[in-house]
Amino acid sequence: MLLATCIPGVAHAGGPDCSRPYTLALHDHGLLYSANTDTGIDKDFADELIRRSGCKVGVSLMSRARIWQLIESGALDFSLSGIANPERRRFASFAWYFSNKYYLLVRKDAAMRQLSEFERSENFRLGVIRSFRYSDSANRLVDKLAAANRVTQAGGLDPLYQALMANRIQGMIMEPFDYPVVEEKHIRDVTSIIEFNDPSVPHGLIMSNKALSQSEREKWRALVEEMRADGTVRRIFEKYFSPSLAATMVDFQAEP
Asked: CA nearest 224: which of 235, 236, 215, 233?
């Protein structure tokens, strides 16, 4: 599904090679991007990144699972708000622009507050978005419950919210981008939020190693660093979060 094709002006000297068009995929996920309104943090970030690059970039909407498949094959150049793990680092590189923690949204009537309780309870079923990975403790919980066939996968957040309200699942993993949707859907009346005791996880521009040479990936990474350094990323996040929460997400240091 093609959302837009951005054709900025002349490429910047020393910037990315604009001799060919590029492709970038967004995924529908809370405040990161809403297909209904064509707005979100990642949309704003993509618009500015494309403008600075001077390149022609086709922007489309895909599921997260499909994005990772195409990044690996080299059929897709970029996506946004991705996190790394050893498997993904084999075929993708990253340019970090924010970091956040993960939380467990749990039905109050599940009457559980500790991660060990969720793991032991045969009645607790967890909902996740297909192909998503999270922080270390969250990943361990997902993997343990998946091995016990107690994980429900969905293509996006809405089916998980519906399953949670219908008590088909008793919990799901969420991020700060999901807070407004949780409030709008009145889910907070029947749920509690439990924080995983993990450090914040860096998220960034995903670059296909097969589609882009290392030197070109470094040029795109430099654009992202420029956006961080001049306050552009902070200003984008402050459109969607309070200044204090935005600061916790954009002020971080991460390894390449």
From this structure: 233
